[in-house]
Amino acid sequence: MTLSPRKKRARAGGSPRIAPIPAGYPTVVPYLAVADGVAALDFYEKAFGAKVQARELTPDGKLIHGRLRIGDAILMLSDVFPGSDVTAPSTVGTTTVTLHIYSRNVDALWDRAIAAGATVAMPLENQYWGERYGHLRDPFGHHWSLSMRVRMSRAEKDAKRKDAMAAFLRGEHPSREPPFGDA
Q1: Nearest-CA neighbor of 56 among 70, 68, 67?
Q2: In a domain, 85, yes or no
């Protein structure tokens, strides 16, 4: 009988090898910095149906580490602490990252997120690439895009693409109304 290396180590009194990536984790996991970690965990539960998997707090109640599961994705977050080299988007006024959620019912998820306190950055609409897509900001400064694939006619896609490209040529983002006073 031939023993596997793991069983040989166990028989010899050694510990079995630990998997370098935890079971069920993807290779890349976003880790968010927030200004109120406990409130953020609660918001993501309400807004996106996240399941809280970890909630480690300091004695004064700040979030050292939180872990959520949204669908098949994992998201980690913590409060910002003095001496850290990261800051929360709410502190600097923006973020350079958008987190994207695909949904089977994007309208229901959209309504749920807004009811929980998200604000609309780009309305939820059918887009020329064949998705119903919109962009939200959460109360902690993070940006979220939500979408689902939808059936659209070639004519609808072409018209939406034409409008989007015209907005880009004018130096505008197609999702935003022109500033007041511009026509």
Answers
A1: 67
A2: yes
